[in-house]
Amino acid sequence: MMEFEDEAFVLAARAHGESGAVVELLTQSHGKHAAFVAGGASKKMRPFLQAGSPVIARYRARTSEQLGSAALEPMGEGPAALFDDALALAGLSAAAAVAAGALPEREPHPGAYLAFEALSQALRHEAIWPAVFVRFEAGLLQELGFGLDLSRCAATGATDDLVYVSPRTGRAVSRAAGEPYKERLLALPGFLLASQAPLEAGDVAAGLELTAHFLEAFIFNPMNRPLPPARLWLVDRLREAGRL
Known about the structure:
It is built from 6 helices and 8 strands. By secondary structure, the chain is α+β, with helices and mostly antiparallel strands. It has 2 domains: 2-76, CATH 2.40.50.140; 80-150 and 188-240. The protein has a 5-stranded mixed beta barrel with strand order 1-2-3-5-4. Strand 6 (162-165) and strand 7 (172-174) form a beta hairpin.
């Protein structure tokens, strides 16, 4: 028997049977868990089964192989707080889809939970959340053992003027060392090097391209899966809104 109570975010939900739903949860201490939620298809429960909704989950499963069940209790506003901001809601949906696709089942990843929590709070701040989304994806890579090494130049060891990333190794490259090969390198936005660095034009687009490359290369391609459609849709919406 496996039982726990934990704070969680809903990552996805789909109808199951006449009135239930299978819900994917990102829990604070127990990782990603799928669970059957009785009454999950009801009008009463549907609002807090939206992607990104914070809940208290009381989870129970007879064996580790069995689909468990969960009783969920809403915790805070969640997506409802972003009801008037379609772009921020798209960001929340994309983050949930990336986490659902990337994280393994039933493996604790508290760092991923904290990163998702930080992003969900940042989504209320229009000017900064796209950059926080990039940081969320970089943190997810780190949590899964594929962190980018942005501490020094892979070619020279220099710690200054790091402006590129090797698409093969995920290591930073300085401007001088990378100049002859810059067409083959990924741009490294300054805000990923220092939290106080100002956002420059094109930084968010470069960051999204950077994290997308490594999410595909290290996580989704090995599973023979593409980046989640919600992630691709977010980039399109940000571009249409002039935010990239």
